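Supplementary Methods. Inverse-folding protocol.

Structures were first reduced to a discrete structure-token string of length 79. This string, shown here, constituted the complete conditioning input.
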């Protein structure tokens, strides 16, 4: 959702993509963080899109003193 707000995705089929827009995740699930650490870098060519995308991106993080439960990447292999 945050990347779409920056212009890297489309909300409707008529929206124009910004090929310079996107998000680089610096901290991922389970990474230790401290105050002042960069969580992600947002890229866009439209300065007025940053605030909403930043809020959306920050809402996706849940910072806790406890490590998150490990979730398997593969649940089942189908043959």
């Amino acid at each position: 959702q945050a990347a779409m707000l920056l212009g890297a995705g489309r909300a409707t089929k008529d929206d124009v993509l910004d090929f310079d827009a996107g998000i680089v995740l610096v901290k991922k699930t389970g990474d230790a963080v401290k105050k002042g650490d960069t969580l992600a870098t947002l890229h866009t060519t439209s300065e007025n899109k940053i605030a909403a995308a930043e809020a959306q991106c920050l809402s996706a993080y849940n910072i806790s003193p406890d490590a998150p439960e490990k979730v398997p990447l593969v649940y089942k292999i189908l043959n």
